[in-house]
Amino acid sequence: MDMLGACRAFVYVSERGSFTVGAATARMSQSVASRRIAALERHFGEQLFDRSARRATLTPFGRSMLPAAKRLVHLAEAMDHAAARAKLSPFRLAVPDTCAARDLALLVAEARRQQIYLDVQLAPPAERMELVRSMDVRAALVAVPPGDGPWSVPLGLASVDQPRARAVYMETLRPGRGEHGRLRRIWVQPEDDVPHVRDRIMQVRDAVGLQPAQVAVAGALTVAAADVLATTDLLLCSARQAADLGLHWCPIGEVGLARGYDVVADSGDDARNIRTRLRAGIADCLGAPGHGEDKT
Protein backbone atom coordinates (compact mmCIF):
# COMPACT_ATOMS: atom_id res chain seq x y z
CA MET A 1 0.00 0.00 0.00
CA ASP A 2 1.11 3.53 -0.78
CA MET A 3 0.90 4.89 2.77
CA LEU A 4 1.77 8.46 1.79
CA GLY A 5 -0.70 8.54 -1.12
CA ALA A 6 -3.43 7.06 1.07
CA CYS A 7 -2.79 9.61 3.83
CA ARG A 8 -2.89 12.45 1.33
CA ALA A 9 -6.30 11.29 0.11
CA PHE A 10 -7.47 10.89 3.72
CA VAL A 11 -6.30 14.37 4.78
CA TYR A 12 -7.64 16.29 1.77
CA VAL A 13 -11.02 14.53 1.71
CA SER A 14 -11.47 15.14 5.46
CA GLU A 15 -10.49 18.82 5.13
CA ARG A 16 -12.86 19.43 2.20
CA GLY A 17 -15.71 17.24 3.52
CA SER A 18 -16.12 15.77 0.05
CA PHE A 19 -14.52 12.87 -1.82
CA THR A 20 -14.89 14.74 -5.11
CA VAL A 21 -13.39 18.07 -3.96
CA GLY A 22 -10.79 16.46 -1.74
CA ALA A 23 -9.57 14.17 -4.52
CA ALA A 24 -9.28 17.15 -6.91
CA THR A 25 -7.29 19.10 -4.30
CA ALA A 26 -4.96 16.12 -3.88
CA ARG A 27 -4.63 15.97 -7.70
CA MET A 28 -6.10 12.52 -8.10
CA SER A 29 -9.39 11.14 -9.38
CA GLN A 30 -12.25 10.42 -7.01
CA SER A 31 -11.98 6.69 -7.74
CA VAL A 32 -8.26 6.68 -6.88
CA ALA A 33 -8.92 8.61 -3.65
CA SER A 34 -11.68 6.18 -2.67
CA ARG A 35 -9.46 3.14 -3.34
CA ARG A 36 -6.57 4.59 -1.33
CA ILE A 37 -8.76 5.45 1.64
CA ALA A 38 -10.33 1.99 1.50
CA ALA A 39 -6.84 0.44 1.48
CA LEU A 40 -5.89 2.58 4.51
CA GLU A 41 -9.02 1.41 6.35
CA ARG A 42 -8.18 -2.23 5.60
CA HIS A 43 -4.64 -1.62 6.84
CA PHE A 44 -5.89 -0.15 10.15
CA GLY A 45 -8.85 -2.48 10.45
CA GLU A 46 -11.21 0.43 11.16
CA GLN A 47 -13.31 2.82 9.11
CA LEU A 48 -12.08 6.40 8.74
CA PHE A 49 -15.30 7.87 7.26
CA ASP A 50 -18.95 7.36 8.08
CA ARG A 51 -20.31 5.96 4.81
CA SER A 52 -23.95 6.58 5.91
CA ALA A 53 -23.52 10.36 5.94
CA ARG A 54 -24.04 12.50 2.83
CA ARG A 55 -20.80 14.40 3.47
CA ALA A 56 -17.36 12.90 4.04
CA THR A 57 -17.73 12.73 7.82
CA LEU A 58 -14.97 11.29 9.97
CA THR A 59 -15.61 8.46 12.39
CA PRO A 60 -14.20 8.79 15.93
CA PHE A 61 -11.31 6.58 14.79
CA GLY A 62 -10.79 8.79 11.76
CA ARG A 63 -10.62 11.91 13.94
CA SER A 64 -8.01 10.20 16.12
CA MET A 65 -5.84 9.28 13.11
CA LEU A 66 -6.14 12.61 11.26
CA PRO A 67 -3.40 14.54 13.19
CA ALA A 68 -0.78 11.85 12.53
CA ALA A 69 -1.78 11.67 8.85
CA LYS A 70 -1.45 15.44 8.53
CA ARG A 71 2.05 15.36 10.05
CA LEU A 72 3.11 12.71 7.52
CA VAL A 73 1.66 14.63 4.57
CA HIS A 74 3.15 17.97 5.69
CA LEU A 75 6.56 16.35 6.21
CA ALA A 76 6.46 14.85 2.71
CA GLU A 77 5.51 18.24 1.23
CA ALA A 78 8.35 19.88 3.15
CA MET A 79 10.75 17.31 1.72
CA ASP A 80 9.49 17.99 -1.82
CA HIS A 81 10.02 21.71 -1.26
CA ALA A 82 13.53 21.12 0.11
CA ALA A 83 14.38 18.93 -2.88
CA ALA A 84 13.21 21.61 -5.30
CA ARG A 85 15.33 24.22 -3.52
CA ALA A 86 18.35 21.92 -3.52
CA LYS A 87 18.06 21.49 -7.28
CA LEU A 88 18.17 25.28 -7.69
CA SER A 89 21.22 25.75 -5.45
CA PRO A 90 24.42 26.62 -7.37
CA PHE A 91 26.71 23.77 -8.36
CA ARG A 92 30.19 25.27 -8.07
CA LEU A 93 32.57 23.87 -10.69
CA ALA A 94 36.26 24.83 -10.96
CA VAL A 95 37.40 25.07 -14.59
CA PRO A 96 40.64 25.98 -16.38
CA ASP A 97 41.24 29.70 -16.72
CA THR A 98 41.90 29.11 -20.41
CA CYS A 99 38.16 28.68 -21.07
CA ALA A 100 36.60 31.52 -23.05
CA ALA A 101 33.75 33.49 -21.48
CA ARG A 102 31.31 32.75 -24.31
CA ASP A 103 31.96 29.01 -24.17
CA LEU A 104 31.43 29.03 -20.41
CA ALA A 105 28.19 30.98 -20.81
CA LEU A 106 26.93 28.38 -23.30
CA LEU A 107 27.91 25.61 -20.88
CA VAL A 108 26.02 27.26 -18.02
CA ALA A 109 22.97 27.72 -20.26
CA GLU A 110 23.04 24.06 -21.32
CA ALA A 111 23.39 22.98 -17.68
CA ARG A 112 20.33 25.04 -16.72
CA ARG A 113 18.29 23.26 -19.37
CA GLN A 114 19.20 20.07 -17.52
CA GLN A 115 18.36 21.65 -14.14
CA ILE A 116 22.02 21.91 -13.13
CA TYR A 117 22.72 25.45 -11.95
CA LEU A 118 26.45 25.86 -12.53
CA ASP A 119 28.59 28.50 -10.86
CA VAL A 120 31.95 28.26 -12.62
CA GLN A 121 35.21 29.33 -10.98
CA LEU A 122 38.34 29.86 -13.06
CA ALA A 123 41.56 28.50 -11.54
CA PRO A 124 44.96 27.04 -12.55
CA PRO A 125 45.55 23.26 -12.34
CA ALA A 126 46.89 22.83 -8.78
CA GLU A 127 44.36 25.26 -7.33
CA ARG A 128 41.41 23.42 -8.89
CA MET A 129 42.27 20.22 -7.05
CA GLU A 130 42.74 22.12 -3.81
CA LEU A 131 39.34 23.78 -4.19
CA VAL A 132 37.73 20.33 -4.20
CA ARG A 133 39.72 19.19 -1.16
CA SER A 134 38.73 22.32 0.78
CA MET A 135 35.08 21.87 -0.36
CA ASP A 136 35.02 25.38 -1.84
CA VAL A 137 33.62 23.76 -5.00
CA ARG A 138 31.57 20.62 -5.54
CA ALA A 139 33.64 19.47 -8.51
CA ALA A 140 36.59 20.47 -10.67
CA LEU A 141 38.00 19.75 -14.11
CA VAL A 142 41.47 18.48 -13.30
CA ALA A 143 44.50 17.81 -15.48
CA VAL A 144 45.22 14.13 -16.14
CA PRO A 145 47.40 12.34 -18.72
CA PRO A 146 45.68 12.08 -22.11
CA GLY A 147 43.53 8.97 -22.24
CA ASP A 148 42.91 8.93 -18.49
CA GLY A 149 39.87 11.19 -18.79
CA PRO A 150 36.96 11.81 -21.20
CA TRP A 151 38.46 14.96 -22.71
CA SER A 152 41.72 15.37 -24.62
CA VAL A 153 43.00 18.61 -26.15
CA PRO A 154 45.89 18.36 -28.67
CA LEU A 155 48.68 20.85 -28.14
CA GLY A 156 50.99 22.46 -30.66
CA LEU A 157 53.06 25.58 -31.21
CA ALA A 158 51.58 28.92 -32.24
CA SER A 159 53.32 31.99 -33.59
CA VAL A 160 52.65 35.23 -35.42
CA ASP A 161 54.22 34.02 -38.65
CA GLN A 162 52.46 31.63 -41.00
CA PRO A 163 54.22 28.23 -40.73
CA ARG A 164 55.92 26.87 -43.84
CA ALA A 165 55.23 23.25 -43.02
CA ARG A 166 52.46 21.14 -41.49
CA ALA A 167 54.42 20.71 -38.27
CA VAL A 168 56.94 22.75 -36.29
CA TYR A 169 60.08 20.86 -35.37
CA MET A 170 61.71 22.09 -32.19
CA GLU A 171 65.14 21.28 -33.56
CA THR A 172 64.75 24.16 -36.04
CA LEU A 173 64.96 26.53 -33.07
CA ARG A 174 68.48 25.37 -32.26
CA PRO A 175 70.93 28.24 -32.75
CA GLY A 176 73.43 27.75 -35.54
CA ARG A 177 77.17 27.83 -35.03
CA GLY A 178 78.31 31.38 -34.52
CA GLU A 179 74.73 32.64 -34.36
CA HIS A 180 74.22 35.53 -31.97
CA GLY A 181 71.23 37.50 -30.81
CA ARG A 182 68.01 36.61 -29.07
CA LEU A 183 67.13 32.94 -29.08
CA ARG A 184 63.57 31.94 -29.98
CA ARG A 185 61.65 30.55 -27.03
CA ILE A 186 58.75 28.20 -26.50
CA TRP A 187 56.46 29.46 -23.76
CA VAL A 188 54.62 26.93 -21.61
CA GLN A 189 51.53 28.48 -20.03
CA PRO A 190 50.44 27.73 -16.44
CA GLU A 191 47.68 25.34 -17.61
CA ASP A 192 50.37 23.09 -19.08
CA ASP A 193 52.73 23.27 -16.12
CA VAL A 194 51.88 19.64 -15.29
CA PRO A 195 54.25 16.67 -15.49
CA HIS A 196 52.70 14.89 -18.48
CA VAL A 197 53.10 18.04 -20.62
CA ARG A 198 55.97 20.03 -19.10
CA ASP A 199 58.35 17.12 -18.58
CA ARG A 200 57.86 15.73 -22.08
CA ILE A 201 58.55 19.01 -23.86
CA MET A 202 61.61 19.56 -21.67
CA GLN A 203 62.87 16.10 -22.68
CA VAL A 204 62.52 17.02 -26.35
CA ARG A 205 64.28 20.32 -25.67
CA ASP A 206 67.28 18.47 -24.28
CA ALA A 207 67.21 15.77 -26.97
CA VAL A 208 67.37 18.25 -29.88
CA GLY A 209 70.02 20.44 -28.25
CA LEU A 210 68.09 23.59 -27.36
CA GLN A 211 69.34 25.89 -24.64
CA PRO A 212 67.57 25.43 -21.26
CA ALA A 213 66.08 28.92 -21.45
CA GLN A 214 64.51 28.21 -24.84
CA VAL A 215 61.59 26.38 -23.19
CA ALA A 216 60.22 28.41 -20.29
CA VAL A 217 57.15 28.23 -18.06
CA ALA A 218 55.30 31.56 -18.04
CA GLY A 219 53.77 33.02 -14.92
CA ALA A 220 50.58 33.90 -16.80
CA LEU A 221 49.09 33.26 -20.22
CA THR A 222 48.82 36.98 -21.00
CA VAL A 223 52.54 37.47 -20.36
CA ALA A 224 53.46 34.56 -22.62
CA ALA A 225 51.03 35.66 -25.32
CA ALA A 226 52.44 39.20 -25.26
CA ASP A 227 55.97 37.90 -25.86
CA VAL A 228 54.76 35.73 -28.73
CA LEU A 229 52.81 38.58 -30.33
CA ALA A 230 55.80 40.94 -30.06
CA THR A 231 58.59 38.55 -31.11
CA THR A 232 59.26 35.34 -33.03
CA ASP A 233 58.64 33.22 -29.91
CA LEU A 234 56.15 30.38 -29.89
CA LEU A 235 53.36 29.48 -27.50
CA LEU A 236 52.50 25.93 -26.49
CA CYS A 237 48.71 25.94 -26.72
CA SER A 238 45.62 24.40 -28.25
CA ALA A 239 44.34 25.25 -31.73
CA ARG A 240 41.35 27.01 -30.12
CA GLN A 241 43.60 29.26 -28.04
CA ALA A 242 45.77 30.07 -31.04
CA ALA A 243 42.70 31.14 -33.04
CA ASP A 244 41.45 33.28 -30.14
CA LEU A 245 44.85 35.03 -29.99
CA GLY A 246 45.12 35.46 -33.76
CA LEU A 247 48.12 33.14 -33.99
CA HIS A 248 49.04 30.41 -36.48
CA TRP A 249 49.05 26.92 -34.99
CA CYS A 250 50.87 23.71 -35.94
CA PRO A 251 51.48 20.40 -34.17
CA ILE A 252 54.97 19.64 -32.87
CA GLY A 253 57.00 17.44 -35.16
CA GLU A 254 58.97 15.51 -32.55
CA VAL A 255 56.25 14.72 -30.02
CA GLY A 256 52.48 14.54 -29.69
CA LEU A 257 51.30 16.48 -26.66
CA ALA A 258 47.80 16.88 -25.29
CA ARG A 259 45.96 18.09 -22.24
CA GLY A 260 43.81 15.46 -20.59
CA TYR A 261 40.89 16.32 -18.31
CA ASP A 262 38.61 14.50 -15.94
CA VAL A 263 36.11 15.47 -13.24
CA VAL A 264 36.97 15.16 -9.56
CA ALA A 265 34.23 15.61 -6.97
CA ASP A 266 33.56 14.70 -3.38
CA SER A 267 30.51 12.77 -4.59
CA GLY A 268 30.74 10.07 -7.21
CA ASP A 269 27.26 10.98 -8.46
CA ASP A 270 28.33 14.60 -8.99
CA ALA A 271 31.36 13.47 -11.02
CA ARG A 272 29.27 11.13 -13.17
CA ASN A 273 26.60 13.77 -13.82
CA ILE A 274 29.12 16.37 -14.97
CA ARG A 275 31.14 13.83 -16.95
CA THR A 276 28.16 12.51 -18.90
CA ARG A 277 25.39 15.11 -19.00
CA LEU A 278 27.68 18.07 -19.80
CA ARG A 279 30.32 16.21 -21.80
CA ALA A 280 29.85 18.08 -25.08
CA GLY A 281 29.60 21.54 -23.50
CA ILE A 282 32.76 20.98 -21.49
CA ALA A 283 34.55 19.75 -24.62
CA ASP A 284 33.67 23.06 -26.31
CA CYS A 285 35.05 25.03 -23.37
CA LEU A 286 38.29 23.07 -23.34
CA GLY A 287 38.72 23.13 -27.11
CA ALA A 288 38.59 19.34 -27.36
CA PRO A 289 37.88 18.18 -30.92
CA GLY A 290 35.61 15.38 -32.08
CA HIS A 291 33.08 15.49 -29.23
CA GLY A 292 29.92 15.53 -31.29
CA GLU A 293 29.43 11.79 -31.18
CA ASP A 294 29.61 11.87 -27.38
CA LYS A 295 26.92 14.44 -26.88
CA THR A 296 24.18 13.22 -24.56
Keywords for this entry:
single chain; alpha/beta; nine-stranded mixed β-sheet; two-stranded antiparallel ribbon; 11 helices; 18% strand
Describe what this molecule looks like in 3D.
The protein is α/β, with parallel strands linked by helices. Helix content is 46%, strand content 18%. The protein has 11 helices and 11 strands. The chain has helices at residues 3-16, 19-25, 30-44, 60-88, 101-113, 125-133, 195-207, 221-230, 239-245, 268-277, 279-286, and strands at residues 49-50, 57-58, 91-96, 118-123, 139-144, 151-159, 186-188, 215-217, 234-237, 248-251, 257-265. Strands 3, 4, 5, 6, 7, 8, 9, 10 and 11 form a 9-stranded mixed β-sheet that branches. The chain has a two-stranded antiparallel sheet with strand order 1-2. It starts with a helix and ends in a 10-residue tail after the last helix. Mean pLDDT is 90; it is low at 292-296.
Low-pLDDT sequence parts:
292-296
How helix-rich are the residues, as a percent range? 40-55%
Instruction: Sketch the topology as an H/E string, one letter per element.
Output: HHHEEHEHEHEEEHEHEHEEHH
Give the terminus-to-terminus CA distance: 37 Å
Tell me, briefly, the overall form.
rod-shaped
